[in-house]
Amino acid sequence: MDREKLLKEGVKEKFLRYVSYDTQADEKSEDVPSSPGQMRLALRLRDELVAMGLTDAAVKDGCIVTATYEGPRREAPVIGFIAHMDTAPGVPGNGVKPIIHRDYSGGDLILPAGIVLSPDTSKDLTGAKGHTIITSDGTTLLGADDKAGVAEIMEALCRLVFSSPADCGRVKVAFTSDEEIGRGITRFDVASFGAEAAYTLDGGIAGELEDENFNASNLTAVIRGVSAHPGKARGRMINAIHLASELTAAIPAVMRPETTDGRLGFVHPTSLCGDIERVELEIIVRDFEEEGLARSLAMVRGVAEDIMRRHPGSFIELSDRGGYKNMKQFISAAPKVSSLAVEAIRRAGMNPVTRSIRGGTDGAHLAVRGLPTPNLFTGGSDFHSRTEWVSVQWMEKAVDVICGLCALWSKELSVSLD
Ligand SMILES: [Zn+2]
Questions:
Q1: β-pairing, 197-203 with 116-117?
Q2: What is the pLDDT at residue 418?
Q3: Which of 163-172, 179-188, 303-312 has the lowest average pLDDT?
Q4: 179 Cα to the center of ligand 1, angstroms
Q5: Catalytic annotation present for 86
Q6: pLDDT of amino acid 182
Q7: Which domains are delineated in the chain?
Q8: What distance in angstroms lies between residue 243's CA and the mean position of ligand 1's atoms?
Q9: What's the pTM?
Q10: Which of 152, 178, 179, 400 is catalytic?
Q11: Active site residue 179
């Protein structure tokens, strides 16, 4: 590992190196991490961090890489930056061949596999005219989600190490595993990480800050009917399949993912499996407001009770498999975490856009555990697809924002107080 090369190469070179590691998460595996490539990248990142001079760099339990940059402003709050090393299952993730498209013209990009990346279907591209765009060759995903975030944090560290700015406190970084299959963050040790506020770099196009996500409940409905010979079923059979249909049909059309956007929540059956006697139905319920989530859950319960009343002998058991909370309430308790991010984005020459995530985020799990963690842009889009792409210029902006946040936080004495 050549320290000089690391410090000077830039974010693009780091990104191209990291996407060459196959770190696709594997839901079917029970290993930690779920795929061996994640550990290979983790060890590589640790070695690079050590080469930079971050002597505490280590791969912790659960394949989580952590390290500390010790800036001179020790009285400032400790700030963390987090990205995930794994890539999404569902689209091939090994043998990524990055293609660099210089000076993007604003039109269609035809990838070698014949797939077209077009501003007609990828609206975010319109903002990247003239940029250097990186895609895969169309046979795999690119892995910008979230190796762009990893590369940006690594590059920001290189900048700090290279320039040793006077206005910087203690900075913690972490690279997590198995984010895409919802496992990695449960292994994250908030206390030993030791940051008072953190940012995930796992978002979309330049300028975006996400500080809000859905409240989520994941329900399982076990619907029990009564089986009988169909020739002698009159008055005896209760078909659980029909009961399941009644339940899903009772979800109002205006409360479904396919009919909602913006701040509207939804009730969404995701899986159905069973027979006459027993059907298992999975339903996910989402809402930005706690009261909205509670109302939707009560609606589902009411429908189930009504079905049981109308079909004596049937039984519907609803259980909550868990979920997550909107991180907004936790982040609002420490408003500087968002306001300094907005300021850092502005200082890096962009228009800050604060968005809500119509889904979950690692930050939602960290916020509940006491670490407010909004999500910053990485400069890419079309994640989890063969047309996934990232702008090099936007990756550089993300590096500016990380370094800018270090400078802004170094002037603060506390995360929560003014
Ligand atoms: Zn991600």
A1: unpaired
A2: 60
A3: 179-188
A4: 7
A5: yes
A6: 86
A7: 3-213+326-410 (3.40.630.10), 215-324 (3.30.70.360)
A8: 38
A9: 0.90
A10: 179
A11: yes
